[in-house]
Amino acid sequence: MSDARKPTKKSKPPTGQQKRNFFATLSADVIKSIKRAALDDDTTASEILNEAARDWLERRRHKTSKAG
Fold it and tell me: What is the rounded average pLDDT of the residues 34-45?
């Protein structure tokens, strides 16, 4: 295998920032839109989904704290 084809080792993220795989089933049109947005924004689909999940969790936290 040539050097150009060898996988590169990525440095580990800082403690508390480690990433793991999470598999979910999404509709094809949502996946396509996320991938297009990632290209447009020069980011990754994973980063978009991570940000969306964090935003949703934050809204949920505020919603549940007001209800209680």
Answer: 98
